[in-house]
Amino acid sequence: MATDPHAVPAAAAGPCASWPAAKGETIRQIVERAGNKWTVLVVGALEAGRMRYTDLQHAVPGISQRMLTHTLHQLRRDGLVTRTAYAEVPPRVEYALTDLGATMIDAVTALIDWAGTHHDEIWENRARFDDAASD
């Protein structure tokens, strides 16, 4: 089937409709980063203030050293987290949210609270679905 070369593409719909198409790729990357489970949990942990690396690792259950390092690197790259190294013995490094990173707190805590509130219901739905799939 031939397409009309003069046809105007349909306008984008949904939450991205108000942003220029040229910004689409970057917006998708930001959403991917912001919605990443480790980002959500690290930002949520840093809401309390500056934290040392090992304290962050304890505050985010299940995160590996490699994943925490990667997540912090990405958050620093995006300007959401700062890293401050102190010239002490033993060396001390602390991480904190930037002003930009702090703007994520409401979204992050809302997502975490939503997951906690609906945990049991979703767990039950998964069990029912898995049981029906095995029949």
CATH topology: Arc Repressor Mutant, subunit A
Low-pLDDT residue intervals, each spanning 5 or more residues: none
In total, the number of domains comes to 1
Percent of residues in helices: 55-70%
Biggest β-sheet, characterized?
3 strands, antiparallel
CATH architecture classification: Orthogonal Bundle
Q: Pairing-aware structural class of the strands and helices?
A: mainly alpha
- Spatial shape: globular
Mean of all residue-level pLDDT scores: 88
Question: Strand order of the main beta sheet, please?
Answer: 1-3-2
CATH class: Mainly Alpha
Q: Give the helix tally.
A: 6
| Helix and strand sequence | HHEHHEEHH
Strand content: 5-15%
Rg, nearest Å: 21 Å
Number-wise, the strands total: 3
CATH homologous superfamily heading: Winged helix-like DNA-binding domain superfamily/Winged helix DNA-binding domain
What separation lies between the terminal Cα atoms? 42 Å
Mind explaining what this structure looks like?
This protein has 135 residues and is mainly alpha-helical. The chain has helices spanning 24-34, 37-46, 53-59, 65-77, 99-102, 105-134, and strands at 51-52, 81-86, 92-97. Strand 2 (81-86) and strand 3 (92-97) form a beta hairpin. Helix 2 packs antiparallel against helix 6. The chain is globular, with a radius of gyration of 21 Å. The chain starts with 23 loop residues before the first helix and ends with a helix.
Summarize the structure.
The chain has 135 residues and is mostly helical.
